[in-house]
Amino acid sequence: MSTSKTITFTLFITITLLASCNASAKAKTQPLFPAILIFGDSTVDTGNNNYPSQTIFRAKHVPYGIDLPNHSPNGRFSNGKIFSDIIATKLNIKQFVPPFLQPNLTDQEIVTGVCFASAGAGYDDSTSLTTQAIRVSEQPNMFKSYIARLKSIVGDKKAMKIINNALVVVSAGPNDFILNYYDVPSWRRVYPSISDYQDFVLNRLNNFVRELYSLGCRKILVGGLPPMGCLPIQMTAQFRNVLRFCLEQENRDSVLYNQKLQKLLYQIEVSLTGSKILYSNVYDPMMEMIQNPSKYGFKETTRGCCGTGFLETSFMCNAYSPMCQNRSEFLFFDSIHPSEATYNYIGNVLDTKIRGWLKA
Predict the structure, then answer these.
(1) Out of 328, 334, 335, 339, which one is annotated catalytic?
(2) Would you call 42 a catalytic residue per the annotation?
(3) Is 193 a catalytic residue?
């Protein structure tokens, strides 16, 4: 082979390999969804509660956000990223999901998705009234305002295509039990059985998911309950629980609710043409971490990192609260909310589920 032919052949091979590598890299960084839309409570609130004057639960003060890139609190109830950010990052959509109420949102932020969730919210409106949160049932009205702005940016047709293909995450429910049913005696008179109250909450969830569908959402991830009896604040509520055992009855309540939820989501999916609805199982990963902490790098699972870790959350977890040194060794950051390390593990599990769901 002549020298010129050898050079030409070598160049051809080099260009082909580079093109192949670039295509592979691009495939790895392509977003799996055009946008992410978040609804629910503090597990996914990225800062909406910073803005309405009446909201009680806020996380815009230290030590919240201490492990974010700028080490600054911005409304997320954790030491770093929360569940919504973890999922958005893993799916290559964006690193941080902004709250819809944040002033001066850019067009690009709107196009790739925002968060409508509010800390303290529940499916039961009375839960949100107690905490002065933006009710879950009110969040679709924020979504309608979002749709109007999205249409003004990309046009009606492209806007609806984005919404039809966006990943919609719904994460709520715990507040209805830990801030309402378990602690408000009047509700137990209306619903003597926990099963009856669960059915009421699930009926509200059913209406909510169907409303999102009516607004164009088709790919919806709905979160179940965590092991509520293992939340530090719930263990503290049982004053004689000196050894800090998980409250088995509350965990059984969570399991029953999650079983009902899975059946309901299947029924909703079957009844709504073109919908894909996925149950987000947070109970099992959290129980796995609680039962085998060392496997996941945890040393403390019964209290939060902030303050005593028994009661502190929101305004009670503040600049005057003592802080644990190794936050990644704590399952919980405050008495209710997981640490960034916990969210990362849960995010890994759900990322695998979502990718499998897309291929199904």
Answers:
(1) 334
(2) yes
(3) no
